[in-house]
Write a structure and sequence with these properties.
21% strand; alpha+beta; 4-stranded antiparallel β-sheet; 27% helix
Length: 180
């Protein structure tokens, strides 16, 4: 689009392609390309979004630090969450999640702390995931949060909502990279 290359991680596409019947593979690839182009159009429209529109879309998306392309990170508003894990301020668009840059916020009221707080409130209200026990062995189970959204992993930021009230000895948390 616009003479710029689109960069995409193709692991999920490759996994779906290998699992599909041979006759369905072309459709899987076509749907993926259409989805990428739609997401790219949305992401291009996001920069400079007015606060009145952006405030309802604010979220935080988790990214592994190693997965961030060289030269990309300085354009994001981010915070470290844990060793190797970044919380990036983002806009949850209909088919894409677009990272917010400092330039995008030049006309917004408040500061980054305010925006991260609002995004956290949105994660507390989010119900676009499922939870359920995963039996490990007799008397022991894990609680899994899962869903199709790229933002499911961001529920880590509101962990107290899910397990800490019931966790007698604390929690061990794992964040699969597919949802980062």
């Amino acid at each position: 689009p616009g003479g710029r290359p689109v960069q995409s991680n193709l692991r999920n596409l490759a996994r779906r392609w290998h699992a599909a019947a041979a006759g369905a593979r072309a459709g899987i690839i076509a749907a993926h390309v259409v989805s990428l182009l739609r997401a790219e159009r949305e992401a291009r429209a996001a920069p400079g979004m007015a606060w009145e529109e952006a405030r309802a879309l604010l979220r935080v998306r988790l990214y592994p630090e190693l997965g961030v392309a060289v030269g990309e990170r300085p354009t994001w508003i981010d915070r470290p969450v844990a060793a190797g894990l970044l919380a990036v301020l983002a806009l949850d668009l209909p088919t894409a999640v677009a990272a917010v840059s400092p330039a995008d916020t030049s006309a917004w009221p408040g500061v980054a702390d305010d925006w991260f707080t609002r995004a956290r409130e949105h994660h507390l209200a989010d119900r676009a995931f499922a939870t359920g026990p995963v039996p490990v062995e007799r008397g022991l189970s894990l609680t899994a949060l899962h869903g199709e959204s790229f933002l499911v992993a961001s529920q880590l930021l509101v962990l107290e909502r899910h397990v800490l009230a019931r966790a007698r000895y604390g929690a061990i948390v794992a964040v699969p990279t597919r949802h980062l």
